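Trying the structure run again after the queue cleared.
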Amino acid sequence: MLKTLKNSDFLKLWLGQLVSRVGDGIHEIALAWLVLELTGSALSMGAILAVSITPNLLFGLPAGVLVDRFNRKRIMVLADLARTLIVLVIPISYTLGVLQMWMIFAVAFLTSTAEAFAGPARLSSIPNLVKGDNLDPANSLVQITKAVSSLFGLSLGGAVVAVFGPANSFFLDSLSFFLSTVFISLIAYGTVSREGAESLLRDVLVKIKGGLSYVVNDPFIKQLIIIAAGLNFIMAPINVILPFFIKETLGLSAIVYGSMTACLSVGTFAGSMIIGNVTVHRGKSLGSGILGIGASLVLFAGVFLLSQGFLLPTIIMIGILSTALVGVGMSSSFTNVPIITLLQKTTEDSKRGRVMSMVNMGAMAAMPLAYGFTGFLLEQVGAIPLIFGIGTLTAIGSTACFRSREIMSAR
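Done. Tokens:
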């Protein structure tokens, strides 16, 4: 797997992802704590997360067309440079004493808009930088990098927020995007095949239609997108529940939140190491991963309920809950790596940007609704019943993969 880093251009892409993911970890902790600090509302948490994913729904298909039409390296550079500047709005406004919630919503929307273009460009570029036989190791390395840098970023984010406050933490987030811009700008990205282009507007409309037709007429790709959408719909509420559970239910600090969230990254790292170094049946890995996520969430809820009955010390309870989150992260690697690799291997290069954008759109299509309902239900029934229900639904949903001939035959 590490042999892929001998490819200097992939190495630069990897380094860019590494530093920006560290910043993302700080961003995640700081944003959640800032919103809770200003409002104390689970509904506001759900709203900010809903705003964060809306750009993928609005711009996903046009972004895929532009990724297929224009230089993918330039798209990534421009997106990271834009985010470098956008996130500075929060700490500067806070320092001047003019920070308002609408500014936080605007920053969340604009940074997510940039990612709507950068994400498909990044995933679509990997097959242009590495050979086909190295796609699984490369994608596993991407997942490992995401896990390790998020682990460091989340842990660092908890400490930074505790020491400097959530608003000032965005200075480090900005720095991470700047460094990513530098690394990606150094990639020697050659000319690759592109479909012919007419006027930009006509090209966008025609290619959106062509991309949709391509996905609709390919049962296998269509199933993968549906699976990604269903999994994200069920998993999305965890992003709202976990900070609320730790701060409001347990009364613990941002450091604990960062540490527990980092356990997801520990699991992702472990799972990606396995996928990257061992030949696996991709279809069975996908189904098993979804089942593992559900089982781990049920375990999380069950352990908390039992701990209340047996009056376990807080540190022991946190340790067991963190172990369950490691299981969630590990299982997610068993789903994410196979999905991305299968899509990269089966999609034509000239259409890959659009397919990757549709994957992002499918994965996020129902998430605003999920976030909104979660914020409401969280205040009505509490965190643990929601986690238990989500875990149960996820485990049941895994049966769809095991019953699919196309998924089970994917190796």
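The chain has one domain: 2-185+197-408. Worth checking whether this holds up in the mutant runs.
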